[in-house]
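#lab-general

N.A. 3:47 PM
ok so I finally got the sequence cleaned up, no stray characters, all 348 residues accounted for. can someone with queue access submit it? mine expired

B.Y. 3:52 PM
send it over

N.A. 3:53 PM
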Amino acid sequence: MNRHRPRSTALLARAATLFAVLALAALALTFALAPAGTAARQAGTAGVVNIVTVLGYQNGAAAGTGIVLNSSGLILTNNHVIRDATTIRVSEPGSGRTYSATVIGYDLGADIALLQLKNASGLHPATLGDSSRVSVGDHVTALGNAGGAGGAPAVSTGRVTGLNRHIVASDPTGDSEQLTGLIQIDAPLQPGDSGGPLLNARGEVVGVDTAASTGFFFNGGGSDSAFAVPINRALTIVKQLQSGKPSPTGHVGPTPFLGVSLDRGGDFGAPTSGAVVTGVVPGSPAERVGLEAGDVITAVDGKSVSSPDRVTTLLLHMNPGKTIRLSWLDEFGTRHGGTAKLVAGPPH
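B.Y. 4:20 PM
back already:
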């Protein structure tokens, strides 16, 4: 499902490539996700890969970074790096080899995703550390695919400035999420660094680079804050995904696809309760069941829907091939219902 979540007061923008904006009090931040093709500084390559995605339903592309967990191509990255991707390509800077990737699973609540490279062997895993030992003032280094340039990763250095930080994130489409328990650093991240490793002074991975400031000012000073998911939390989610058991905010395996873009009721003169259909993918289950732009989905499989988030949550725990019952109102308030068989689609 392509979906739009409630808009926030953060500055939003979206072009052919995917960016995201975060808001923390008066501080504006951005997911470190970028279009491919701009310059990056060169550094070491061990345990770091570059990720490029095609967003087929948005007619765009985006780039990010991944962390190699084993020699056969298990890759850790941010969920927003692969969100809505119809194709994922991963390249290893050291060897220049490129692989296609499949999504093992992802967790929206922690912004973590796990990928598996096809036909990969002999990769050099990153050295993992213990994020519980990270302290304010520690020297850190962030590596990533800055600017989406590919090649060897760029390097950004700084110190830890905070622990257990909480932020509310919203991307340019209005998708929003809460990220908690983050490591805050003053090493500036660039678009494309998302999913890359945050290293301690010993070169061990202690976090997954996730978000950075957009250059706005906070409390009268320049904002250079960036955030990373602690590696201990990320690895706990990896084990959960590998077990095949979904969590309340996680999904394992192929993603079910309905084929609608959604917004909160009230934005288009529709009721405030429900999920407004703003677009339908041609040939999708949504089109076949009869959904049209302007309709308001009110129930999925007998469960009431009060927002686009609710639709996402319900579909998150389903699988492609499942037949669901949909209820909706058209633009005149007439009630409709029908069944749709979900197909495989891009990750949420």
